[in-house]
Amino acid sequence: MPRYFIDTTAGSLNARDEEGYDLPDLEAARREAVCALPEIARYSLNRSERKSVVVKVRDESGAVLFQATLTLSEQWMDAPTAG
Hints:
Oligomer: single chain
Number of helices: 1
Strand content: 25-35%
Structural class: alpha+beta
Largest sheet: 5 strands, antiparallel
Shape: elongated
Order of helices and strands: EEEHEE
């Protein structure tokens, strides 16, 4: 079974997966990475200077095969003026 590694970048956090996952194929690795995005974002976006989380899937040779990004966009609206 192939081994895939899921690296994470969220603001100044760069986590390189050194253990990896034994998964049947790249589609399974993609699902694993995409499903991890909301959980990672929950713990990192509030403490981050950037508002995006990136996961990359590598194979055993180190080649990046897939990347997904979750981005939070915030914008204050003009407050109504008291009349």
